[in-house]
Amino acid sequence: SRINPAVPPILEQIILKVLSKEPSARYRTADQLARVLTTFVAGPPRVEPTVPPDSALPRSDPEAHTSTMPRPLDGVDWVAVALGLLAFLAVGGLVPVWLWACLLYPSCPLR
């Protein structure tokens, strides 16, 4: 917006989030970014009128702040669920393999 003042503030927030140094502050997937951009292209979100900044409302009042950033759709990331389950099964499967390998040797402490 410093170079081109015609850039909408919502698009500026999306771009700043994409360019964030901290990976956890960026969008998790390209699909999530695509959904946000689709929402942006579809039209600006309806924002309720905000309370004037000089009001005496406390900062913790959720009605005092409205987010101009479109919220990504909250869904289950099934790839992450599948990978977590696979990791759990892999680690759980190592215990019986270790017991079997240990019991093959006469110096096994479990005998």
Percent of sequence in beta strands:
under 5%
Total strands? 0
Largest sheet: none
Helix content: 40-55%
Radius of gyration: 25 Å
In DSSP terms (H or I, runs of 4 or more residues), the helix count works out at 3
Shape: rod-shaped
Say what oligomer this is.
single chain
Overall pLDDT level: 78
Q: Could you give the order of the helices and strands? A: HHH
Q: What is the distance, rounded to the nearest whole angstrom, between the alpha carbons of the first and last residues?
A: 72 Å
Description:
The chain is mainly alpha-helical and 111 residues long. Helices cover 45% and strands 0% of the residues. The protein has three helices and no strands. It has helices spanning 9-18, 30-42, 78-104. Helix 1 (9-18) runs antiparallel to helix 2. The longest helix has 27 residues, at 78-104. The model has no long low-confidence stretch (mean pLDDT 78).
Q: What attributes characterize this protein structure?
A:
mainly alpha; single chain; 3 helices; rod-shaped; 45% helix
